[in-house]
Design brief:
alpha+beta; Alpha-Beta Plaits; SH3 type barrels; five-stranded antiparallel β-sheet; about 30% helix
C-alpha cells in the first residue's frame, strides 16, 4: 500500500514538472514572436498616409520666396508662372509672375501640413468645408501642360461643339488634356478647372485638336 502511494506521488510530481516546463517553453517562444512582430510593425512604413497636393496661401508678393524656401526645405512644390513683358521708357522687360496670386502648391502628407506654416510668408492652408482642400494630381498636371503650351497653327475644321462641352485634346503638345470648351471673341478655347480654388485656366486651340467627351464622368474621375 505504501508503495502504491509512493508511486502515485512520484507520478504526479514529475507530471507537474512536465506541465510547468511546457508552459515555460510556450511563454518564452510567444514572447519572442510577439517582440519580433512588434519590431517589424514599428519598422514598417505607414502606407495609408499619402502625399497629396495642397494650396498654401501666402503674403502678397511672397509666392516666389515661399516656393524657394519650400524647395530648399526638401518639399515638392509648384508655383505656376506666366511670362509677361513690361514696357519701360527705353526697353521691354521680360517678367515672370505668379499665375495665381498669393498661392503656392505643395505635395505633402496631410499630417505634416502644419510644418509648412513655419516657413516665412506662408499664412494658412486653403480649406474647403472646414477641411484642408486637396488639389487633384490631374489638375496640377493639366495646369503644367497649359503653362508649357505654345499655341500651334492649325486648320480649325468645323465640328458641333457647344459652350461648356467636355472635350479632350487628341493631338499637339496638350494631348490627353481634358477640359471645357468655350468660344470667346472668335477664338476656340479649352479651360481646365482647379476645383479647390474654384478657378478656370485656358488656352486657345484649333478645333481639330479636340474631340467631345461623351460623359462628364470621364473628366472628373
Amino acid at each position: 500500500m505504501n508503495l502504491l502511494f509512493l508511486f502515485f506521488d512520484f507520478y504526479f510530481y514529475y507530471h507537474q514538472i512536465f506541465i510547468i516546463k511546457c508552459l515555460y517553453i510556450f511563454t518564452v517562444k510567444y514572447t519572442y514572436i510577439y517582440d519580433v512582430i512588434k519590431k517589424e510593425n514599428h519598422l514598417m512604413p505607414i502606407t495609408n498616409q499619402q502625399s497629396k497636393w495642397y494650396a498654401i496661401y501666402t503674403r502678397a508678393n511672397s509666392e516666389k520666396k515661399v516656393y524657394e524656401q519650400l524647395c530648399r526645405s526638401g518639399y515638392v512644390a509648384y508655383l505656376p508662372l506666366i511670362t509677361t513683358y513690361r514696357q519701360w521708357s527705353d526697353r521691354k522687360k521680360k517678367v515672370q509672375s505668379p499665375l495665381i496670386s498669393s498661392y503656392v502648391f505643395v505635395k505633402i502628407e496631410e499630417k505634416k501640413l502644419t510644418n509648412v506654416l513655419s516657413i516665412s510668408g506662408a499664412l494658412r492652408i486653403l480649406k474647403y468645408l472646414g477641411r484642408n482642400a486637396v488639389v487633384k494630381d490631374e489638375e496640377i498636371k493639366s495646369l503644367k501642360l497649359l503653362l508649357n503650351y505654345t499655341p500651334e497653327a492649325g486648320f480649325s475644321m468645323k465640328q458641333h461643339l457647344s459652350k461648356g462641352d467636355v472635350v479632350e485634346v487628341i493631338k499637339g503638345s496638350l494631348i490627353g488634356l481634358k477640359g471645357y470648351y468655350t468660344r470667346e471673341k472668335n477664338q476656340n478655347k479649352i479651360y481646365i478647372k482647379i476645383r479647390a480654388l474654384n478657378s478656370y485656366f485656358g488656352a486657345e486651340i484649333p478645333l481639330n485638336y479636340v474631340k467631345k467627351v461623351s460623359s462628364i464622368k470621364n473628366l472628373i474621375k
